Amino acid sequence: MIVLGLSHLAPSAIGHDASVCLVDNGKLVSAVSEERFNGVKHYAGYPAAAIDWTLKDAGLKLSDVDRVAVGFGLWKRPKSLPKMIYGAFKTNSNVTFKQTPMQKKNPTFIDHQLSHASCGHRMSGFDKALIISLDGAGVDAGKPSSGGIFVGNGDSIETLKTFPLDASLGFAYGAFTVACGFWFGDGEGKTMGLAPFANDKPQKDLDACFAKVSGMFPRFDGTEFVGGGGFRTASRLVHGSHLVEFDNPQLNALRERYGSKVLAWAAQKALEESASGLVAAAQEETGINNIVLTGGLFYNVVLNKIIRERLPRSDIFVTPVAGDQGVAIGAALELSHREGVRLSNKRMADVYLGPEYGEGHISDDLKKYGCSFERVDPSSTAASLVESGKVVGWFQGRMELGPRALGSRSILANPTDIKYKDITNDKVKHRESWRPFCPSMTIEASKEYLANPVEAPFMITAFDCVCPDDVPAVVHVDGTTRPQTLRRGINPAYYDAIHGAGGIVLNTSFNLAGDPIVCTPADAIMTFKNSGMDALVIGDFLVSKG
Q: In CATH, what number does 359-544 get?
């Protein structure tokens, strides 16, 4: 049975990261986000190009697809729900798909949090697991939702509880993200990164601000979320071209009094206490030590570190595509299960699920854009360049799914001197100077750099660094780092490049600030030309600047 999975079918104030996957007889074959084709980061519209590529990659036509699954449930608007919120969901109504080629395929709409849970459980490799999904908003059981608690058992997933919209930790944290001056739905990582810079502020200011902020976050009392009211805390939520207005000016007043750093610190601490408390309570209630974390909230790597340290006897799997890229996968796998297909539930080893380009395509584009290039061994060449202090674009193999560059579409630099962080921020990424970078390291080297290391192949959780002075370009101001640990069998060429550069490199996504990660050779070439990168290793070719 061939199932095409979609994150959603139409733009809305809530929809984002429109993505598509193909599942063939229970096996995930490919997955990609629309933003990689149209260049619009977090694109929320109909994923036409992603559908087209997915079908062509598999040698299929739409008529060959047996079923279509959409990871955003249908809902019925209660009369009491404000029109403002209704507008965020209405385009996911049961008439939307009639405007697309999906009409003939009669899509099955799978509940949103269940789709997150399905993706997480079926990537985790656990037979039985406690699954926690937390995000901004979705639709489950016909009602707007912001999270849920599930139990996975073999191929089946049982819903224990879903949380209403006014318990949205994603919206609450998003509101503070906007108050700090960043975009909702994209800037939450900046809020997390800004928070540690408040540690040099007076403790009385931190305590006073946190006392106010913590009351604005919903808290789990062991049964339900109480207090707060996630979406009501926002004075202004911005996502892409969508603007949702709410009428609470408290956050701007807090920022004016305490400053953005303190506000970010207080919001991060409130999020950590609320979300980790929920996970701990659910684990105690169920007694299940295999825990899956999924939903966009768990892109917060510091939160994931807090949960891992709070539950040291649990085996925790954080979904590598925790956001809405993953609901396309989760919906397709859940529908496959419902249709009687046996799923493997093996631990996901990588997310190299997107397009790749052959030597002929790459060389044609290099000639087209007037590049001087030579054939090289990509791994040894990249290692040598990084060790000599060059900033290198690395374009190899199938593109990664999700927001992290994991060695297919990466920019690499030397982590041993802080100047390479500054160079990469200023001349390459064109972004704020305080923004941190992450390392890719071999699994063997992880024991040298990480406190209490566990395998972390997806750059989705943080660790304390035991030798921050050795690799200052990839250690944050609080002494933590967010690594990708890599086994050679997962990506031999990238592993060899890292190993040749001393076992660790600075790795950031191959894009400029505000752009999606590059997809095609042409994207890579133009980004290389428009940045301060010194060299580009693309396929078996080296491109240098004159």
A: 3.90.870.20
Read out DSSP for 63-106? Answer: GG--EEEESS------TTS-HHHHHHHGGGSTTGGGGSGGGGG-
Lookup: tokens for 63: 């008529």
Q: Name the pTM for this structure.
A: 0.94
Query: What is the SS3 assignment for 162?
Result: strand
Q: What is the pLDDT of residues 199-217, one digit of tens each?
A: 999 999 999 999 999 988 8
CA nearest neighbour of 19 among 526, 527, 522, 516:
516
pLDDT tops 60 at residue 308:
yes
Q: How confident is the model at residue 88, as a pLDDT? A: 46
pLDDT in the model for residue 252: 83
The residue type at 22: L
DSSP-derived pairing of the beta strands 315-318 and 392-395:
unpaired
Q: Which CATH number fits domain 2-123+323-338: 2.60.40.1970, 1.10.390.10, 3.30.420.40, 3.40.50.720?
A: 3.30.420.40
What does the CA dihedral 406, 515, 56, 25 come to, rounded to 10 degrees?
A: 50
Q: Which long-range contacts (CB under 8 A, 24 or more apart) does 477-480 make?
A: 477/196, 477/197, 477/199, 477/434, 477/436, 478/196, 478/199, 480/302, 480/305
Q: Is the pLDDT of residue 509 over 70?
A: yes
